[in-house]
Structure formats: structure tokens, C-alpha cells
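[job 4471] stage=fold_predict status=RUNNING
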Amino acid sequence: MGALCYRAAEMKGDAPQEVCVFAPATVANVACGYDVLGFAIDKPGDEVVARLSAEPGLRITKITGDDGKLPIEAEKNTAGVAALDLLKHLGMLDLGIEMEIHKKMPFGSGLGSSAASAVAGAYAVNKLIGEPLTKKQLLPFAMTGEASADGAWHADNVGPCLLGGIVFIRDNQELDIAQLPVPKDLWAAVVHPDIEILTKVARGILPSEIPLANVTQQIGNLGGLICGLIQEDYGMISRSVHDVIAEPRRQKLIPEFYQAKRAAMAAGALGFSISGAGPSVFALCQGEETARKVGGAISAAFAQVDLGNQVYISQINQSGVRVVR
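[job 4471] inference complete, writing C-alpha cells
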């Protein structure tokens, strides 16, 4: 171990020599909150390992679960970009760090895969050097990492992945965000059908102009959902989980979307829509039993057209990214 690494550890007190973190999948938009609302679920997610090294600089030494799709160069990888941006901010670019990335969620799934890697990269390095920044202070660095993948700058995946819970973004450029209350019996059923939708494609089919009546309705739904969460009013939540802007256009990219939606609502879902850009879909539910029933109904709807899928049943994950070892 080089003297530089020892000095870094001493400077930060009890900083570890190695850390492994888990960053969870997220559901963005939550129907009525396009680019301004998202929540975290328990799984799937990504793991990143960071360890001190005698060789100066940040290097990615291993990537698993990506089928060779991800660049191993740190400056081209979302996790690496986030970590490098953090180290640059701290004046520690020469610190020797090795990083491993273990992808445990599908690409183009609408579950925040790029955001999870970026969050994990920034958080792991921050932990490794003794946690000089708080979770919330890591937000711009994780955002830089995710933006390197898709060019967009919106925190509806990164925010909840980093902080946990349900996150509202008042302004994406300013990263003015707040965590909303989570009703104790609120569950999510998330289903990922085995197709891939690129974010740029899903964004490309949205209109550049939206009728005022739709904007008014969407604002009302977003306000209603926030009120429902604060007041633990499941009826208000149910009436508000409705998207009149993106879902009507993006649903055509997802086979059997409306059949799945009808099945979810018939099984007791509070509301159903597309997770992020899709193809994953989600349903908010009251109680675990209902969530499992709804997840099964959605899965069965996709299976009717021989579309394989994975079901994730979860309460709202309120911890966000965390150390696993």
C-alpha cells in the first residue's frame, strides 16, 4: 500500500481500505410527476466495490453483468464519471482507487440502471475516503455520472436511489429536492417485461407542446398525489396516479400495456403506469398481500403473449444507497 493511500486513510480517521455498496432500482415519474418525482424499491440494484490502491488514480478493474456493454475506462463509465467528479471536487484525483462494478439490473429497463451505477460510484468512493460529504451533498456528482450516459439532467432516479423514499424535485437545474412522507402501508409491484426501450426513443415520441387542459390536469394529479402521501389518504393517492401526458404516447412501446393495466386495477392496485421511460411498469398498492396479487396479475397479462417478465414486490425503500460490506 502506497504512502499516499495511508495518508488518505489517516487524514479521514477510520476510513476503510475497501467498501462495497448497493444502489437500488427506482421508479421515476410515478405517473403524474414527469421528471420531478421518483421512489426507490428494495431490488434489483447495482453493487460497486471500491478499494484503496498503491497506483495513483481511479481505475475500474472489473465489470460483471453487463454482457460487455459498458466501457471499463473510468472517464466513460457512469460510476467512474461520478467518482471522478467527486474526487476532482475534493482535490484527490491522484488518490489510488480500484473499482469493481456489478450490474444486477437490466439495461433500458426504466428502473434507473445508469442512475444506480452513478450513485453507487460516488457513494462508495465517499465512504472509502472517510465520508467527507453527506448523501445529499453527493447529488450533483451522481447526477454528472448519470448525465454522461443519456445527456439528461433530471434527478427523479438519482435522488431516490441516493436518499431513499419518495423524492420530489422542485427544480432539476438547481437540484432543489425534498423527501416526501411515505404511508406505512404503501407497497409497489414493479414488473419488467423482457424488452428494451432506450430513453432517447421514449423521450423522442413525446410532444413538444402540451394542451393547457392536460397540463392543468397533470398538475392537479401531482398535487393530489403529494397530498395523499402526506395525509396517508389512499383514496387520494389512487385518484392521482394518472398520467395524461407521457403514458398515452409511450404505452404503444410496451406490448399488452392496457391489458396489464386493467389486470392490475382489477386486482386492487391504487394506480398503474410506466416506470420512467419503460418498459417496466409499476402499481402502487395498499398492503403487501394486494401488491403480490397485483404483481401476479400484471405478470400473467404479459405472459399471455409469451412476454417473459420479472416481478419485484417492495415497500418504498427508505434507505437508498447503503453499505453492504
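[job 4471] summary: The domain at 3-179 is CATH 3.30.230.10 (Ribosomal Protein S5; domain 2).
[job 4471] exit 0
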